[in-house]
Design a protein that fits this description.
There is one protein chain. Helix content is about 25%, strand content about 25%. With about 375 residues, it is α+β, with helices and mostly antiparallel strands. The chain has two domains: about 210 residues, 3-Layer(aba) Sandwich (Rossmann fold), CATH 3.40.50; about 110 residues, no CATH class. The strands form four sheets. It has a six-stranded antiparallel beta sheet with strand order 2-1-4-5-6-7, covered by helices on one side. A six-stranded mixed beta sheet has the order 8-15-16-3-17-18, with helices on both faces. Strand 11 and strand 12 form a beta hairpin. It is globular.
Length: about 375
């Protein structure tokens, strides 16, 4: 898939002291015990999304300042470095697209982007001088406005990262953003916390370029919520703004149902299904523990949606659910363990588990610690 990540290398980031060229495929299921480093791996993608928006320092401030990101602190880790290899798309990189950067802590606990490079014509080329923000954002213009031979890879890297999305639908409380009204024009992309789920659903309900998307979405929701009939998505006039709220219709009733009539699991599944069934998905979808609050049958349907999405984009899912694991092939799984104070990553291979798989499911092997990823006592 164009824009997908082929390999990722990480050094010095939180519990990830050294990760060398981890292969990522269309579907990647990340498993591991609490504290193993799954969430740190997910945060790598959030970090890159912040960098491409010139929001690095804001992200660092909101997540504990620079020392919190350095493996075992600044004395042990003087610099964080990462490298990404992307699926080929540019005509100017001879089949290879790489992006590399280094983050060096400053005395005031921020980060300096001390090195930022892209791979072009079989050599690494710097973006520019070290700075407090990434220069990726400066590559956002259309290639036709730039010298393509020099900027092609930089533009490609920006566009790839710009289309990443880390979905986090954990907050389903009564005041959660997904349960509140949002302006009708906020409908271009589904936001990472589902805050614009109502206007986004209204747009796809009205659009004509992919009518099956909305139909498939409603059918998937009905499998989990048999009483669900359809979305209403009422538009409200609030001051000068037109806003949409998450209203819906129940089967056998003409009484409008509201967001507060949806359980935590129901509204979370609506957000997950909307993200995964998107016919124009982000280039990379990352979801952390999507199984939270879902009924076992909903988890099985969720797995089908994840597998379907992986045919159209690259999907990375972090989970601890044996039932969710049961729905995937063992080759889809990357195990995160904590050894000697650092996270290790290993992609599984079927030949190592053939005998076990004759009698046990993947989830059972995980529960029995045959797939070794249990709690580590250091």
């Amino acid at each position: 898939m164009k824009g997908a990540i082929k390999k990722i290398s990480i050094n010095g980031f939180k519990s990830i002291r050294e990760l060398h060229e981890l292969e990522l495929r269309d579907l990647n299921i990340i498993i591991g015990a609490n504290g193993s480093g799954k969430s740190n791996f997910v945060q790598v993608f959030q970090l890159l999304m912040a960098m491409r928006q010139k929001g690095l320092q804001k992200f660092i401030c909101e997540n504990g300042w620079a020392d919190n990101f350095l493996h075992n602190g600044p004395k042990s880790t003087p610099v964080i470095s990462m490298e990404f290899e992307f699926e080929s798309q540019s005509n100017y990189s001879k089949g290879k697209n790489f992006y590399r950067f280094e983050l060096t802590p400053t005395v005031d606990e921020r980060f300096l982007v001390s090195e930022e490079r892209r791979y072009l014509n079989n050599k690494w080329m710097p973006y520019g001088s070290p700075s407090l923000e990434s220069l990726l954002y400066d590559e956002r213009e259309e290639k036709s406005q730039l010298n393509e031979q020099f900027h092609g890879v930089g533009y490609f890297v920006y566009q790839s990262i710009a289309q990443w999305m880390v979905y986090h639908f954990h907050d389903t409380s009564s005041m959660a953003p997904m349960r509140r009204s949002e302006i009708i024009d906020d409908n271009k992309l589904l936001r990472n916390n589902g805050s614009n789920i109502a206007p986004f659903l209204l747009k796809i309900k009205k659009q004509t370029f992919s009518p099956s998307y909305y139909r498939d979405l409603v059918n998937a929701i009905r499998l989990v919520m048999p009483f669900f009939d359809d979305f209403r998505l009422d538009v409200l006039k609030m001051g000068e703004a037109d806003k949409v709220k998450l209203s819906w219709q129940q089967k056998g009733s003409d009484v409008p149902m509201q967001h507060y009539h949806l359980s935590d699991g129901s509204i979370r599944f609506i957000c997950l299904a909307t993200a995964l069934l998107n016919p124009l998905p982000p280039s990379v979808i990352v979801i952390d523990e999507p199984e939270l609050g879902l009924h076992p049958e909903a988890i099985r349907i969720l797995a089908e949606l994840i597998q379907d999405a992986a045919k159209r984009t690259q999907v990375i899912v972090a989970t601890q659910s044996p039932l969710l694991l049961d729905q995937f092939s063992i080759e889809d799984i990357v195990v995160v363990n904590r050894k000697d104070g650092q996270s290790t990553f290993e992609r599984l291979h079927r030949e190592d588990f053939n005998e076990w798989l004759n009698n046990y499911s993947v989830g059972e092997l995980w529960s029995k610690n045959v797939i070794q990823g249990g709690t580590s006592y250091e």
